[in-house]
Amino acid sequence: MHFDILVEDQSGKKMLDILIPKIINARNSFNVRAYKGIGHIPKNLTPSANAGAHLLLNQLPKLLRAYGKDYANRPPNSPAAVIVVCDLDNRCLKTFRQELFAVLKVCNPKPETRFCIAIEEGEAWLLGDIPAIRLAFPLAKDAILNGYVNDSICGTWELLADSVVRGGSTALKRRRWQAVGREKSKWATRIAPLMDVEKNASPSFCYFREKLRELTAAENV
Question: Domains of the chain (ranges plus CATH)?
Answer without folding.
Answer: 2-122+200-220 (3.40.50), 123-194 (no CATH)
